[in-house]
Amino acid sequence: MAEISWSILTIGHLSMNKHWGETERKRGPLCTSTLVKTAEGLLLVDPPVMPDRMAGLLGDSAGITTADVKHVFLTHFHADHRFGLEAFPHAAWYMGPEETEFWKGKSSGEEAALLGKFRPAIGDFLPGIAALPAPGHTPGTTALIFRWRGIWVAITGDAVMTEDFFRACEGFHNSTDPDRARVTIRELASRADLIIPGHGNAFLTALMPREDGSWSGGKPM
């Protein structure tokens, strides 16, 4: 089986980032979106822009069309992580079953119809790609984890907002369960060598600060 590969389509950002000293909304949100090449076709995680912009994003960032995407996975059902979902009507849509059930109880109309189209992402739902429950941000937030070039990569969605939130071991202010969000971050830190967060660039979990707050540039000294 060919090795899994991945690329980031968009490096996301937050509408307000407390670690930048921001206390009010400064911009619209953009999630980090990832394209993963699997043995069963291309998997798009968290389509980040509206359907009329998805074709341009895929063409500019990966040289592909919307028809080339065979699978779409949502880490959770917040709107900024599914803006472009309906650009992929012929792809298989996946989400953690706990997340689907949580939102079914809160949705109606078009949103309820969308939820009825998701397949449950459980275990190794694609070859080499495992769904990993990562609750806290929402009850059913789900990460993906896979081996790449000898290391473990986790695509976490908002289970990890950015590297700063990871280092602080804290969720975003809208987490449904802040205590569980912290536990999830610790669990992801123990499982993954590299994290692709919900609203920032990928980073190595081994890059930790010293006790005085300075950065070692490698594993803890």
Strand order of the largest sheet: 1-2-3-4-5-6
CATH topology value: Metallo-beta-lactamase, Chain A
Provide the number of structural domains: 1
Main sheet record: 6 strands, mixed
Give helix and strand order, one letter per element, not per position.
EEEHEEHHEEEEHHEE
What this model shows, in words?
The strands form 2 sheets. The protein has a 6-stranded mixed β-sheet with strand order 1-2-3-4-5-6. The chain has a 5-stranded mixed β-sheet with strand order 7-8-9-10-11, with no helix packed on it. The longest helix is centred in the last third of the chain and has 14 residues, at 178-191. It has one domain: Ribonuclease Z/Hydroxyacylglutathione hydrolase-like (Metallo-beta-lactamase, Chain A), CATH 3.60.15. Helix content is 21%, strand content 24%. With 221 residues, it is an alpha/beta fold. It starts with a strand and ends in a 17-residue tail after the last strand. Mean pLDDT is 93; it is low at 214-221.
Topology at a glance:
Blueprint: E1 5-10, E2 33-38, E3 41-45, H1 51-62, E4 69-74, E5 92-95, H2 97-104, H3 109-115, E6 119-120, E7 130-133, E8 142-148, E9 151-157, H4 163-168, H5 178-191, E10 194-197, E11 203-204
Parallel strand pairs: 3-4, 4-5, 5-6, 9-10
Antiparallel strand pairs: 1-2, 2-3, 7-8, 8-9, 10-11
